[in-house]
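Quick entry between incubations.
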Amino acid sequence: MITHENCIFHLRTESYSYLFRVNGYGILEHLHFGNPICTSDAAAFTCVPGLGWGGSVLLDEQDTGSCLDALPLEWSGSGRGDYRESPVELDGKATDFRYVGYEILDGIVPMALPQAKDGGETLVITLEQKGARLYLYYTAFETALTRHVVLENTGKTSIAVTKLMSQCVDLPGHFEMTSFHGGWIAEMGKTTVPVNASRVVNESTTGASSNRHNPGFLLGESGAGEDHGRVYGFNLVYSGNHYASAQRSLQGLTRVMQGISPDHFAMTLAPGERLETPEAVLCWSDKGCNGLSRNMHRFVNEHIVPKYWRYRHRPVLYNDWEGCMFDFNHRRLISLAKKAKDIGCELFVLDDGWFGQRDHDKAGLGDYTVNRKKLPKGLEGLSKEIRGLGMEFGLWFEPESVNIDSDLYRAHPDWALTDDFAPVLGRHQLLLDLTKAEVRDYIVENVSRILDQAQITYVKWDMNRHSIALGAKAHAFVVGLYEVLDRIFSPRPQILLESCSSGGNRFDLGMLCFSPQVWCSDNTDPISRLDIQGGLSYLYPQSAFGAHVSAAPHAQTLRTTPLSTRGNVAFFGVLGYELDLNHLLPVEVQEIKAQISFYKANRKLFQFGTFRRSENGWQVLGGDVAIASVFHKQMDAAPGYEQLRVPGLTAQRPYRVRSLEQTLRVGQFGALVKHVAPVNLDPNGVVLRTVDHHYTMPDGVQTCIASGAALESGIMLLPLFRGTGYDKNQRTQLDFGSNLYLIEAEE
Ligand code: DGJ
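Done. Structure below.
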């Protein structure tokens, strides 16, 4: 609900209140963003600057309350006394936008850029200065609000825009900024730094939202933790260069702004033209980072992902990439598909290598002719046979890119995005210039044709080279991409789109508006994924995480991890398998079948349950059922007791807690097997190897009844291996071991 009373605007939902007022100078003063309050409380939040601040500039010399530098603002400019960072720069001159009026509208106001949809109420504030108008949009959704601005040239001469943020706000308090950084196979590393007088910046300049700096970040009040304290969350519905900063003023106000990165940004607005910024998302919780994540997850699930896929369960897929790379043919794919079906997969995805001369990554991108040497029956024939096996068929594309060694580049070298210098390649490829209508048409026509011919129900949309376009062109590229995605997928809402950019190099809310899930990382090592998926979980729901079980040792880390842990980590996302199924041992096939059937039985909970990061793992909760995991990295000798805390259940209700059965590979004990085997076996011998391939030993299973209150307090888990031999009543965990607990209400 949005109200306007005595110059005070109040966006109020059950989760938050957001208040600001128009002061006597037509300046918007921020009052409160936090717990729901009454509008009548506004006076209690008003800042009174007092006697001025030495040499500060006053709008009115008689009024110390007119010192812009000292006020908490909703928007600002430069050259009028506010020396803090300005959210706008026009013609390199001072700006002075003042309030003109407002409108409150039902629902959202449609934008050209992707935006949060369905529900909400929108407040539009109009500000004006000579020759320009600025419209500030605020849409209130239940657990988050969005802000963006539109700048309109109302004058007679052009305006050079070099910076225009989506939102700017001054929040009182001491904060720490948590942001997420990394690179290929090392996405979403969490960094927390205090926000003080020096500006903290989170920015991408690669042309995409990037794995270097995800656009989403948190501002937690000092001392806030996972389950306690006040935390703000911010994100941007945009896939291009982004910018966010936080800086604390002498008065104790932290200015936070977000928008398109001003790096090299320059756009000319002719008279009458308008420039729209992407939507910023603002969220708040007083229940710590987990509370904030819950609010963000709900917002993304209900207002960002395409409507058809909201809370719609996602299939368990098999992807051939890590198993085959470019080396496959029709027969090999069908044999893999049969095995994938047998273990329980529902969707078979053919990754890179199906078109043109794409036998390696140096050629073929841009060409849409099926490679008949590999696929003599074409995609139609392949897809028909796969569907005949009872599975859906999905296909990989990389439509934004072109190899120099491709028919497309030979025919249209001018379609590649280049600058005035010799082309520089990334993964041997260039980007196509999506700012050109003919390029967009080429992609839309070709991808659409293939989707319809081969009855494709899933698309992996990859992008492995980032833009070198700068400024306005970088933005126009992203706008072109959105147009392409919209034209292909809006008429085909039932196609499940998974976007990817060398893994998570474009994991953002802009892409999620089209693709309900995103490939988090080419790194599927479960221990790395604890950080990658764990980092993403702060801002994105687990239904958005493409999470696959792959081979061990792992291709990116060389780490060997138990199959159980690979499954237990991938369960907390959209489960898939990506390894050569011909190389599985009989014991592994059995284990994978059990994993997939457990996941399917609990898929709704894993994909859409309320997610929580705990001291020792991840948890999902849905009504009176929960699944909790415990992950171990390096095991210590003589480990201590371990507890499982699961808050959020009904305190007085009894619950049955049962750990998922896990098995131990005999071979992993090497020479130690002599302690449990009746005969002395050679640890490197053929007998032990054969036994290892076919038989496993059961690990400790824990079953107990505990109340919701006891689970909230923390129940004791079975002891861990303590160097005294195998025992069925303990958890014999090696490094990288894990457990999963199913907690269901007792009838
Ligand atoms: C990069 C992706 O992240 C991988 O999953 C795979 O699709 C390759 N591209 C194919 O070239």
